[in-house]
C-alpha cells in the first residue's frame, strides 16, 4: 500500500469524491489554477474543469452562501476557506443558514455542504494562521465538525463528510499536511462520522484528544511506557456532536482522564467532554478530570519562544500525563 | 562554523541541493549565496550566515537532506567563541533538563517515602478517597483505613484498592477477618486436606498470615523462657464449679479462662509486658487487651478480650466462648480483632508441652499455655502426683530481658498455683 | 401604466394579474384582522407592493427558483403557496409547509415550487439565490434563480458578495430590490448614499434597471427581459422597483416615525387601487367582475382561515426532529 501524507490523502479523497459523483464540486480562493495555497486541490481543475473547480472572489460569506444555494438544488459543494481564521465572515451563513436548513424547513430542504479549512499552529503562522476555531461552532445543532488526526482518517472522514446530507465543517491541521505519512488504501472508503477511535490502548490513564495532538499524545505515551506507565489515547475525530458513549466508556475504565487540545483552555470543546464525564462517571473517577490546552491569550504568537510557549508538544503532554498517572 | 539546511516554508521538512554556488576555499561575505535549494514549495538561494572561508561541502548536488542537517562548513576565525557559546547554551539546556528530572524523581521519591511510612505504624493512606475508591470499598467491604495508598500524597488509588480486593485483606464487618498465629481447635468441620503432590496457591488469608509472621520475625529479636506451674488446685477449682456453671450459664467454664485471668493480673503488675516497640520509644498500653487464638478449619483467628483485667473469670470465660462461636460462624468483626496488647495461646489443646510462639507484632510478648499433665513431682522432699503445666513466653528482647520476664512469669505461676475452691471467685 | 400590448400581454393576462394582486391583499388584510383580534401573534405585510411582486412573478416560468424576502406574500402566493399554506404558517400549525410551525410566519419555503427556505438574518437569501443560479448553470437548465430584498438589506455584505459572484460568472440570476423607502423606521436618505440602487449593477458587471414598482406591467417587462437575458448568456440583472409600504413595518411597529400626512398620502399611492382604476378606465374590467372576484377571494380567505384555525399544532416531540438526517448520527 502506498504511503500518503495527510495532505495527499485529502487530495486523493477529493479526487475520488468528484469522480464518483458529478454533483460534487469544489470552490474557494486559489483552489483552481494554483491548486490551493498548500496544494491540497492541485490537479483537480485540470482534471475536472473550471466548471467544477471554481476560483472564487475573496468573499467567505459568499463562498459558503453560494454553496448553500447550490446544495439546496441538489449539488454537493466542497468549499474551502483558506485559513480557519477567515471562516468568521461566513459564520452567519454557517450557523444561521446551513445548520438550520433542514430543521427550519421541516425536512423539505437540506444542506449537504462540506467546508474544509486548515487550522492549528506550530508553523510560525502567528495570530491569524494558527488558531483553532471549532469551539465557535461546537454548540450549533445541525452542524457536524470533524477533525482527522491521521492520513487514513483524513481521507475516510472527508469522503464521509461529502456523502453526508447535512453540513460538515472539516478542519485539517496544517502542520500535519506534510508531517504525517502512513499507508492509505487506494480504494474509496469512509470513516464513520460521530465515532471516536481508540488509537492506543492503556490501563493507567485515559487521554482524550483530537487533531495533531493525537500524534503528540501517542509520542508522549510511548515515552512513558518505558517507565511502566500505560496510557490510552482516544481520538475524538468528530468533535461535535461528541461520541458520548465512547467517552463515558473509556473514561470509566481507568477513572483518570486527561483532555488535550491546542485550543484556548476556557470554552474549548474539551470543556464539554469534561462535563459529560463529570455527569456520567462520578463513581468511576479516581482523579479530577485534568485538561491540557493552550493558554487563555488571544492567539499563538510569531516569535519562536512565544509560539513554543503556547503550542502543545509531546514533552508538555508527557509531564501532564505523568502527573495524572501518579495521582 | 556550520551551515544547516534552512526551513524554507511552513510545512517543509526537507530540501534538495540543486546547485552549489561556492567551492572549498572560496571566501564569502555574510549573506552571500551559497547554494540553490529546491523544496516542494519553493526554490531558494541559501545565504551564508557568516563571513569566512568554505572548508567543506557536506552534501552533494542532487542530494536531499532534512531541515537542520549540516550542508557545509566554513572557517570564520571565530571558532572558539562560538563553541563556547554553544557549550553554555547546551549546558543551560541540560541544567534545565536535570532540574526537571530531579523534580520528577523527588516527586516519585516522596511518594515512595510516603508509602513506606504508610507501611509502618502510621496511617496507611492520606485519608482522601476518590469516588471510585469509595465505590469499590463499599462494594467489597474493604476497610479503607487498612489500604496502603501509593498515589499522590499517599492517596489510595483505584489500582491500590483493586490490589487489595484481589488479595482480600483488612475487611470490615460481617466478613471473615484475617486470622493469625496458632489455632485453638474448636471444630473440625469439612476440612479438605490438601493431597500430596498438589500445590496450594498462597493467597488471601494465608498470604497475610505468612506476611505477618515474616514481619514479626524480621523485626523483633525473640527470646524465650519457660516456667512450670502446679495447676492441681486450679484443676480442682475448675472441676468444682464446672457442672454448676454449665447448668446456670449454658456454656463451658474452661481452664483457659483461669489462665487468662492470671495473665491479665500479671500484666497489671508488670506493665512493661503490655507494651509495644515503636521506632525509638516503648509505648505502654493503658488497656489490657488479651489476644487469644481461635482456629476454624485452616484459618486462624486472633480475637481480643478487651480490658481483661476488669473482667471476672466468668466474664473471661463468657467472652472466650462468644468469640469462639463467632469464629466458627464466621461472624468475627474487625473490632473483635483489633487492639490486642498481649497474646495468650492455648497450645496445650493439641498436646504440646513446650513451644516457641512468634510474637503477634507489634506486641511485646506471647505466652503459650501448654498441656496440663499429671506428673510426679517433688514437694517437701516427697513425691507427689500433681497436674503440671508449662508456660512458655517469647519476648521482644528490645523491650524485655530475662529479669522482667522472669518476674512476670513468676507472678503468673504463683497466681495459677493460688487458685482454690475456697478463695477463688468465679464471678 | 406601461403599454401592455408592447410587452406581449393580453387583457386576460391583466385580469389575471389583478386577481393575484387582490388575493394577496385579501389574505394580508385578513391576517391583520386576526392579529388585532389576538388570534395570531405576528403579521408582516405585502400591502402596497403587490404590483411589484405580481409583475415579476408573472414573468417567471415553471422550474425557476425564487429566494424571496418576508414581504413577498403576493409573490409566493402566485408562485404556489396557497392561502391555506399562509394561514397555517400564521397560526404556527403543524402542517405549515414552510417549517412545520418551527419558524415565524412569512419565512417562506416550498421546495416543490422552487421557493428556497428563508431565515431572519436579512440578505442571506441573496447568496443562496446566486448558488442556485450556479447549480442551474452547471446543469444547463432553462431556468433562472432570483432573489428579492428590501433596500435596507441591499446594504448587507451578502448582497455585495453575491452580486459580485453572479457578475463574475454571468449567472442566470436576477436580484430585485423592492425599494419602499423604509427599513422599519430608517428612511432611504439614511440607508444608502447612491441616487439609484440600480446603479450598483455597474459595479458588479451586470445589467441594472430602475422601474416604477407600482406599475405591474412595467415590472413584468423588466423581469421578462432579465430572464431572457440570463438564459441567453447575457448575465445577471439588478432590478430596483420603487414601491410603497402601506402599513407599518409589522404588527409590532406603530409607524409613528412617518408623519400623519405622509401616511394619509400613501393611500392614494395604493398600487391595487391604481391598477383597478386603470383597468376600469380601459374597460377591461367592470364592477360586476370586481364583485365576483371579491366574493371568490372572500370565500378562499374564509375557508383558509377556518381550516387553519382548526388545524393541529405540532406535538412537543417535534422539537427534536430533523436536526440531522434521520439515522445518520446517534443523536439525530
UniProtKB/TrEMBL annotation, chain B:
Cellular-component GO terms for this entry: cytoplasm
This protein's record includes keyword Acyltransferase: yes
GO molecular function: dihydrolipoyllysine-residue acetyltransferase activity; lipoic acid binding
Cited Pfam families: 2-oxoacid_dh, Biotin_lipoyl, E3_binding
Segments of this protein annotated with the region Disordered: 76-126, 171-202
CDD domains noted in UniProt: lipoyl_domain
UniProt-recorded name of the protein: Dihydrolipoamide acetyltransferase component of pyruvate dehydrogenase complex
Native species: Staphylococcus xylosus
Automatic annotation (TrEMBL), chain C:
Coiled coil (UniProt feature): none
UniProt keyword list: Oxidoreductase, Thiamine pyrophosphate
Gene Ontology biological process terms from the UniProt entry: branched-chain amino acid catabolic process
Keyword field contains Ribosomal protein: no
Region Disordered: start-end pairs: 301-332
A GO term for molecular function: branched-chain 2-oxo acid dehydrogenase activity
Its EC number(s): 1.2.4.4
Pfam short name (any one): E1_dh
CDD domains, per database record: TPP_E1_PDC_ADC_BCADC (cd02000)
InterPro entries: Alpha-ketoacid_DH_E1_comp (IPR050771), DH_E1 (IPR001017), THDP-binding (IPR029061)
Residue stretches of biased makeup (Basic and acidic residues): 301-310
SUPFAM superfamilies documented for this protein: Thiamin diphosphate-binding fold (THDP-binding) (SSF52518)
Role played: The branched-chain alpha-keto dehydrogenase complex catalyzes the overall conversion of alpha-keto acids to acyl-CoA and CO(2). It contains multiple copies of three enzymatic components: branched-chain alpha-keto acid decarboxylase (E1), lipoamide acyltransferase (E2) and lipoamide dehydrogenase (E3).
Protein name stated in the entry: 2-oxoisovalerate dehydrogenase subunit alpha
Lineage: Bacteria, Bacillati, Bacillota, Bacilli, Bacillales
Amino acid at each position: 500500500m502506498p504511503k500518503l501524507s495527510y495532505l495527499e490523502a485529502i487530495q486523493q479523497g477529493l479526487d475520488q469524491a468528484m469522480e464518483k459523483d458529478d454533483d460534487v464540486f469544489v470552490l474557494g480562493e486559489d483552489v483552481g489554477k494554483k491548486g490551493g495555497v498548500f496544494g491540497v486541490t492541485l490537479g483537480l481543475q485540470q482534471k475536472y474543469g473550471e466548471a467544477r473547480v471554481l476560483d472564487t472572489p475573496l468573499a467567505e460569506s459568499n463562498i459558503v452562501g453560494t454553496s448553500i444555494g447550490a446544495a439546496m438544488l441538489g449539488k454537493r459543494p466542497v468549499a474551502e476557506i483558506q485559513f480557519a481564521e477567515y471562516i468568521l465572515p461566513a459564520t452567519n451563513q454557517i450557523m444561521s443558514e446551513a445548520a438550520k436548513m433542514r430543521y427550519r424547513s421541516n425536512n423539505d430542504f437540506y444542506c449537504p455542504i462540506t467546508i474544509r479549512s486548515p487550522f492549528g499552529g506550530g508553523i510560525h503562522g502567528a495570530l491569524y494562521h494558527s488558531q483553532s476555531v471549532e469551539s465557535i461552532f461546537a454548540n450549533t445543532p445541525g452542524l457536524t465538525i470533524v477533525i482527522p488526526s491521521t492520513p487514513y482518517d483524513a481521507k475516510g472522514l472527508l469522503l464521509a463528510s461529502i456523502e453526508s446530507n447535512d453540513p460538515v465543517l472539516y478542519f485539517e491541521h496544517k502542520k500535519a499536511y506534510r508531517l504525517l505519512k502512513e499507508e492509505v488504501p487506494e480504494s474509496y472508503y469512509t470513516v464513520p462520522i460521530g465515532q471516536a477511535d481508540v488509537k492506543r490502548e492503556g490501563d493507567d490513564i485515559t487521554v482524550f484528544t483530537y487533531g495533531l495532538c493525537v500524534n503528540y499524545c501517542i509520542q508522549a505515551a510511548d515515552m512513558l511506557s518505558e517507565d511502566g506507565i500505560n496510557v490510552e489515547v482516544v481520538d475524538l475525530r468528530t468533535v461535535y456532536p461528541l461520541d458520548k458513549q465512547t467517552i463515558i466508556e473509556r473514561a470509566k475504565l481507568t477513572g483518570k482522564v486527561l483532555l488535550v487540545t491546542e485550543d484556548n483552555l476556557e470554552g474549548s470543546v474539551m470543556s464539554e467532554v469534561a462535563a459529560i464525564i463529570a455527569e456520567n462517571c462520578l463513581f468511576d473517577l479516581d482523579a479530577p478530570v485534568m485538561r491540557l490546552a493552550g493558554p487563555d491569550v488571544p492567539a499563538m504568537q510569531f516569535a519562536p519562544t512565544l509560539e513554543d510557549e503556547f503550542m502543545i508538544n509531546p514533552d508538555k503532554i508527557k509531564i501532564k500525563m505523568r502527573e495524572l498517572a501518579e495521582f | 562554523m556550520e551551515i544547516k539546511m534552512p526551513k524554507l516554508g511552513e510545512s517543509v521538512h526537507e530540501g534538495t541541493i540543486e546547485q552549489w554556488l561556492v567551492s572549498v576555499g572560496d571566501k564569502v561575505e555574510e549573506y552571500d549565496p551559497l547554494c540553490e535549494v529546491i523544496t516542494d514549495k519553493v526554490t531558494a538561494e541559501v545565504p551564508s550566515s557568516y563571513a569566512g572561508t568554505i572548508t567543506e561541502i557536506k552534501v552533494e548536488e542532487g542530494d536531499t537532506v532534512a531541515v537542520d542537517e549540516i550542508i557545509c562548513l566554513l572557517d570564520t576565525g571565530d571558532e572558539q567563541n562560538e563553541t563556547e557559546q554553544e557549550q553554555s547554551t547546551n549546558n543551560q539546556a541540560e541544567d534545565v533538563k536535570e532540574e526537571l528530572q530531579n523534580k520528577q524523581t523527588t516527586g516519585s521519591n516522596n511518594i515512595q517515602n510516603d508509602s513506606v511510612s504508610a507501611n509502618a505504624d502510621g496511617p496507611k493512606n492520606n485519608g482522601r478517597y476518590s469516588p471510585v475508591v469509595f465505590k469499590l470499598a463499599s462494594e467489597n467491604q474493604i476497610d479503607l483505613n487498612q489500604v496502603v495508598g501509593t498515589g499522590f500524597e499517599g492517596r489510595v488509588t483505584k489500582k491500590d484498592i483493586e490490589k487489595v480486593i484481589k488479595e482480600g485483606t483488612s475487611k470490615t464487618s460481617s466478613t471473615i477477618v484475617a486470622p493469625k498465629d496458632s489455632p485453638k481447635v474448636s471444630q473440625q468441620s469439612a476440612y479438605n486436606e490438601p493431597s500430596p503432590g498438589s500445590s496450594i496457591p498462597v493467597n488471601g488469608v494465608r498470604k497475610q498470615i505468612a506476611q505477618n509472621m515474616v514481619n514479626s520475625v524480621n523485626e523483633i529479636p525473640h527470646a524465650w523462657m519457660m516456667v512450670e506451674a502446679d495447676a492441681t488446685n486450679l484443676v480442682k477449682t475448675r472441676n468444682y464449679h464446672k457442672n454448676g456453671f454449665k447448668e446456670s450459664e449454658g456454656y463451658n467454664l474452661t481452664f483457659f479462662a483461669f489462665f487468662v485471668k492470671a495473665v491479665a493480673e500479671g500484666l497489671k503488675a508488670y506493665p512493661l509486658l503490655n507494651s509495644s516497640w515503636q521506632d525509638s520509644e516503648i509505648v505502654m498500653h493503658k488497656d489490657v487487651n488479651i489476644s487469644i487464638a481461635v482456629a476454624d478449619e485452616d484459618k486462624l483467628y486472633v480475637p481480643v478480650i478487651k480490658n481483661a483485667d476488669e473482667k471476672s473469670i466468668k466474664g473471661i470465660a463468657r467472652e472466650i466462648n462468644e468469640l469462639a462461636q463467632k469464629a466458627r460462624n464466621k461472624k468475627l468483626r474487625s473490632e473483635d480483632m483489633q487492639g490486642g496488647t498481649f497474646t495468650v495461646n492455648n497450645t496445650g489443646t493439641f498436646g504440646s508441652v513446650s513451644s516457641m510462639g512468634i510474637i503477634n507484632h507489634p506486641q511485646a510478648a506471647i505466652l503459650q499455655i501448654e498441656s496440663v499433665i499429671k506428673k510426679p513431682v517433688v514437694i517437701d522432699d516427697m513425691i507427689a502426683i500433681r497436674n503440671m503445666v508449662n508456660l512458655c513466653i517469647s519476648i521482644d528482647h528490645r523491650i524485655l530481658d530475662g529479669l522482667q520476664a522472669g518476674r512476670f512469669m513468676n507472678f503468673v505461676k504463683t497466681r495459677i498455683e493460688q487458685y482454690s475452691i475456697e478463695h477463688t471467685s468465679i464471678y | 401604466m406601461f403599454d401592455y400590448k408592447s410587452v406581449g400581454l393580453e387583457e386576460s393576462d391583466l385580469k389575471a394579474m389583478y386577481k393575484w394582486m387582490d388575493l394577496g391583499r385579501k389574505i394580508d388584510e385578513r391576517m391583520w384582522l386576526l392579529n388585532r383580534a389576538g388570534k395570531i401573534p405576528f403579521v408582516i405585510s405585502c400591502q402596497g407592493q403587490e404590483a411589484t411582486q405580481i409583475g415579476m412573478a408573472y414573468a417567471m416560468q415553471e422550474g425557476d427558483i425564487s429566494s424571496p424576502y418576508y414581504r413577498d406574500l403576493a409573490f409566493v402566493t402566485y408562485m404556489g403557496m396557497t392561502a391555506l399554506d399562509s394561514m397555517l404558517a400564521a397560526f404556527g400549525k403543524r402542517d405549515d409547509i414552510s417549517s412545520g410551525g418551527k419558524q415565524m410566519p412569512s419565512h417562506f419555503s416550498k421546495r416543490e415550487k422552487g421557493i428556497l427556505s428563508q431565515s431572519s438574518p436579512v440578505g442571506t437569501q441573496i447568496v443562496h439565490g446566486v448558488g442556485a443560479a450556479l447549480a442551474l448553470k452547471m446543469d444547463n437548465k432553462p431556468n433562472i434563480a432570483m432573489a428579492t430584498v428590501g433596500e435596507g438589506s441591499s446594504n448587507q455584505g451578502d448582497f455585495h458578495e453575491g452580486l459580485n459572484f453572479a457578475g463574475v460568472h454571468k449567472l442566470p440570476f436576477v436580484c430585485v430590490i423592492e425599494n419602499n423607502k423604509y427599513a422599519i423606521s430608517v428612511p432611504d436618505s439614511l440607508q444608502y448614499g447612491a441616487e439609484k440602487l440600480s446603479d450598483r449593477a455597474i459595479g458588479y458587471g451586470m445589467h441594472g434597471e430602475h422601474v416604477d414598482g407600482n406599475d405591474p406591467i412595467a415590472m413584468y417587462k423588466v423581469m421578462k427581459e432579465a430572464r431572457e437575458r440570463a438564459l441567453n448568456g447575457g448575465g445577471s440583472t439588478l432590478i430596483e422597483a420603487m414601491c410603497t409600504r402601506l402599513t407599518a413595518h409589522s404588527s409590532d411597529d406603530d409607524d409613528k416615525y412617518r408623519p400623519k400626512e405622509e401616511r394619509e398620502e400613501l393611500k392614494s399611492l395604493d398600487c391595487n387601487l391604481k391598477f383597478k382604476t386603470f383597468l376600469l378606465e380601459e374597460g377591461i374590467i367592470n364592477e360586476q367582475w370586481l364583485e365576483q372576484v371579491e366574493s371568490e377571494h372572500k370565500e378562499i380567505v374564509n375557508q383558509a382561515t377556518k381550516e387553519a384555525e382548526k388545524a393541529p399544532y405540532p406535538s412537543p416531540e417535534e422539537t427534536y426532529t430533523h436536526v440531522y438526517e434521520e439515522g445518520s448520527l446517534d443523536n439525530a
